[in-house]
């Protein structure tokens, strides 16, 4: 049926269609603006992390420090103390080297407080024979905040020693660390000496997906399409009414 045979829509129908189209247009524009805000936030995050990765290490915060993911994650920090290899745990990991385990070893600082150090990755065949160095240690790496609870599909089982995330508080409790425990862990940085050693540090993935501009343009394109559709509808309706003499 062509447009002339169909005839113009009623005012109520036209108002309803245009109303829904206008709401969709406003929604698409709002989503586009939100994605632009997310783009600004993500760009600032990437810039901050890049600066922190290039900065000289600073002393690791105290065990009672208040940290935020936005300001503190991926800061380069250093600490000194003594490793307690008897309370070491392994946490399931998937890395560029394959699946295996992170090796988390408690480090007790001079003030008696503890912090967990991720000494690096080991493949499954190395799990039973993880090399250990001197107990006294000076470590440098990236500050990482605790990962409570476990992974999306697998929860930590402390009673069975099965760990799927680096949950600082749960690991400290399960391993009986007496005294203050820092609410973060340190991902040990790689050095020339660790290039072929186990555990293998330096595998921290510091990448941020940043597709917000693409999403914003997509929403704005949909808004433009909706605006075009509304314009066409109004023009076509006026043409039909002129042809039929309707009002």
Automatic annotation (TrEMBL):
Q: Where in the cell is it found?
A: Cell membrane; Membrane
User: Would the keyword Membrane be found if you checked this record's keyword annotation?
Assistant: yes
What family does this chain come from, according to its entry?
Answer: Belongs to the SURF1 family.
Going by the UniProt record, its keywords in alphabetical order are:
Cell membrane, Membrane, Transmembrane, Transmembrane helix
Tell me what topology the record assigns in the membrane: Multi-pass membrane protein
Q: Name one GO cellular component term.
A: plasma membrane
Q: What is its main location?
A: membrane
**Taxonomic path:** Bacteria, Pseudomonadati, Pseudomonadota, Betaproteobacteria, Burkholderiales
Q: What is this protein called?
A: SURF1-like protein
Question: PROSITE patterns annotated for this entry?
Answer: SURF1
